[in-house]
Amino acid sequence: MVGYRFTQFIPEQDPKQSTFDNLLNIFLQLMVITSGNVNEALSWLTNLDRKYNISTSDYGIGNFTDDLKNKGYVDDKNEKGELKITAKSEGEIRKSALEEIFGKLKKSGKGNHRTNATGLGDEITSDYREFQFGDSLEQIEMTESLRNAQINHGPGDLYLTENDLEIREREFKTQTSTVLMIDISHSMILYGEDRITPAKKVAMALAELIKRKYTKDTLDVIVFGNDSWQIEVKDLPYLNVGPYHTNTVAGLELAMDLLRRRKNKNKQIFMITDGKPTCLKEGIKYYKNSFGLDPKILNKTLNLAAQCRRINIPITTFMIASDPYLQQFVREFTEVNGGNAYYSSLQGLGDLIFEDYKRNRRKNL
Q1: Which of 19, 83, 130, 351 is the most exposed place for a label (fewest CB within 10 A)?
Q2: Residue 260: predicted pLDDT
């Protein structure tokens, strides 16, 4: 009888990586999960070592902790003398997230989004055309223009006219501004599923990707629970959920306000959430209703989606949930805005966000 024999899978060790490097990769992952708590991450690392022998007899977790300090990944130079990660570690965490989520992407030179249009870009093409009013001097191809002058006027009396000038087309590259909204309501860690850690990783990977490849683009990250506020990319490893409801309205209002300050034409909002809007702020009080879709909250949310559509801001919703009534809300929200929606598993979230990032980038000219 033909069948399969399963054995224990033991991954191959990279001979180029030292024990410190292997432990560092695990430590950086734990730093995201523990929201930047070094002591907790080291405690988890010790437990993993006891169970899976990830250190060696010559190099233990104590040696690793000392090297983290010596190499500048952590320090205790604060008022309480607690171990904290440094800017070096924050950068490594973003780099690790980028490689994990977008590692298959090819590197690009200057890194901006190509479109099907041509114009005053910085990518030279092989196409030529006649000079037109409004073209800049930098676009004129002198070699081709002088050749035209010789052909049109003869080599004896060389002079240039407007009809001799030739322009080489350049590929037009656009700039976009993106706001990434992350739901930090309590449901992001309920039901035994950690949804906030993948959301943080995607945000860090997207930020690092834009920094490296799409250098002219901007990314703002905001979180929303009972309220909404902006955070810096460097703060993402420390992000935690709270005992919050989901005030989607506050998140959208802040996102629109941030995008109004951006001068470029192309703007978009990405929203990662796992639930329905359940909260509004009225003055200094909160209006909350977690039981089903409250019409008062829903109508305000849909009104903002319509406002975004009128000012050409598409919203892409990544719903990390599969409840039918939540999908119905997302469908209605997306139809009003004219954006896109995905009902994503946590595993495929990064690929979906990158693909939609490029798609929105191309269609908004």
Answers
A1: 130
A2: 95
